[in-house]
Specification:
434 Repressor (Amino-terminal Domain); 15 helices; 5 strands
């Protein structure tokens, strides 16, 4: 490789700077990606790095090559499809939204709950969507709600609850809690108070065990359980749903959807992975998607 010019800038430095500018990538992000400190990368960019230049430049070349490969092979993203399952989630969200009710949507993993509530939220700017994580406390939940209501999330729990109620009162907004099975009793009870006082709808989405837990532990969840206006249990994807999803993602391949139906077992998440893996295999081999590719993709999945 050519050595540095009079200003100490090598062609590799220029190439990295071009990539950073094109991708709007910061030096800190590049440094993390190549396993160096920000100061080390900054010194190298200025032609002043005193360490092992060859090793650092090897890491930079690897970063540039990976970026180039990613640019050629963009991540495949499937468009949202209004399946019968998604329609039921939309209907549930709309009922809570319009009537200020508390509703529950339950279904097994991969039933399409998360993608549906995200789409509903994207279409309705007055929806507050919270995706609960394992170990979420009432404080964690209300800190996130507090911030999404325009506050700083820095108060104590009761103050945040009062702020949220005051901000949402008579607003007609909707709160959606995804993966609600992760929430503790106190968080659920405080959400019930938000519904009571602000009169905003709340839709809980979770695994089937969420509703079963509420039912079995009615002593703990009595206030919430009696206020649930409705419950919807999602079924597996229907054949017509699978046909629509596959034909939208892979047009012009009549009958191909039947292979995907056989391999996905009516699970939307598995279907999505099968489609993206099949599209990638087809892209890598320069051929259309075939039933054999769908079956090969199914072998790759951990199910």
């Amino acid at each position: 490789m050519k050595g540095p010019n009079a200003r100490g800038i090598t062609p590799l430095v220029t190439e990295l700077q071009q990539v950073m500018q094109k991708r709007e990538c910061t030096q800190a992000a590049v440094a993390r990606a190549i396993g160096y400190s920000g100061s080390a990368l900054n010194q190298w960019l200025a032609g002043k790095y005193k360490g092992d230049v060859a090793t650092l430049e090897h890491a930079v070349r690897g970063f540039i090559e990976r970026d180039s490969e990613k640019a050629r092979n963009r991540r495949i993203r499937l468009k949202f499809t209004m399946t019968s399952t998604a329609r039921r989630v939309f209907d549930a969200a709309r009922m809570c939204h319009l009537d200020g009710e508390i509703g529950v949507v339950c279904g097994e993993a991969g039933a399409g709950k998360t993608i549906s509530v995200k789409e509903y939220a994207s279409r309705n700017s007055d929806v507050i969507l919270v995706e609960a994580d394992l170990g979420y406390t009432a404080l964690d939940l209300f800190r996130e709600l507090h911030k999404k209501c325009g506050f700083d999330g820095g108060c104590n729990l009761n103050k945040m609850k009062d702020d949220i109620i005051e901000r949402l009162r008579d607003s007609g907004r909707l709160i959606i809690i995804d993966e609600a099975e992760h929430l503790p009793v106190r968080a659920l009870d405080l959400l019930r108070r938000v519904n009571d006082k602000a009169e905003v709808g709340i839709l809980f989405c979770g695994l089937a065990r969420f509703m079963e837990t509420l039912r079995v532990r009615q002593t703990d969840f009595a206030y919430l359980y009696t206020r649930i206006g409705f419950r919807i249990t999602l079924d597996s994807l229907q054949a017509q749903d699978i046909e629509t999803i596959v034909n939208e993602a892979i047009p012009g391949r009549d009958g191909l959807w039947r292979t995907f139906q056989e391999e996905c077992y009516g699970n939307g998440r598995i279907l999505g992975k099968l489609i993206t893996r099949s599209l990638r295999l087809a892209e890598l081999n320069g051929v259309p998607v075939t039933p054999e590719m769908a079956r090969e993709a199914a072998k790759m999945l951990v199910m």
